[in-house]
Amino acid sequence: MRTEDVRLLDPKKVKLFRNEFNELSLEYEGRRYDNISVLKAFPLSASTYYIALIDSEDKEIGMIEEIHLLPDKSRRVLEEELSRRYVIPKIVRVLEVDEIFGMPIWRVVTDRGERTIELKSRHDAKLLPSGRVIIRDMDGNRYEIPNFWEMDPRSRGLIETEL
Q1: DSSP string covering 80-149, please?
Q2: Are 42 and 50 in contact (CB under 8 A)?
Q3: Are 48 and 64 in contact (CB under 8 A)?
Q4: Which of 83, 89, 139, 141 is most buried, judged by most C-beta within 10 A?
């Protein structure tokens, strides 16, 4: 897709809501779209910018450039939908890091309970400049450590061996 093919929607004209079947719906320029889905163009680096709205036939309706420019009600509906779609468990403690045949295996405690995370390689754990750590497991699931520097010393030590 070329840049000129992207259709930016006027945020003032976007009305997002839940229809009678609790599906995400959009009204835009006199047209109604039911059962739409949303996709973040940059889920890690710019998660509130460039949100694609996709119709029920998997065709892009358009893109919202910045969530915060939407009317309050539509913004709340969109944020709720994005948080449901992009669930990323937060790692609160690292219990153990092991390796089997070159594959890192992390045993962690998340905000959703204890998990064992199998990574393809060490490159699947990235420390971002903000201190946030993003981890992708073998199945493509993502986990995050909101702030590496706020972890307990033992967890930080285990993580440092993998970054």
Answers
A1: HHHHHHS--PBEEEEEEEEEETTEEEEEEEETTEEEEEE-SSGGGEEE-TTS-EEEE-TTS-EEEES-GG
A2: yes
A3: no
A4: 89
CB 70 within 8 A of CB 53: no
**Whole-number pLDDT of residue 86:** 79
Quickly tell me which residue has 């009305």 as its tokens: 15
Domain range list for the chain: 3-85, 91-160
pLDDT level of residue 156 (50, 70, 90 thresholds): very high
CA 70 – CA 40 distance, rounded (Å): 16
Measured between alpha carbons, how far is 31 from 108 in angstroms, rounded to an integer?
A: 47
**What are the residues whose beta carbons fall under 8 Å from the beta carbon of 101, sequence distance 6 or more?**
none
87-100 residue pLDDT tens: 889 999 999 999 99
Cα–Cα distance, 62 to 146 (Å, whole number): 31
CA–CA gap between residue 155 and residue 40 (Å, rounded): 30
Do the beta carbons of residue 16 and residue 25 sit within 8 Å?
Answer: yes
In this structure, the number of other CB atoms found within 10 A of the CB of residue 132 comes to: 14
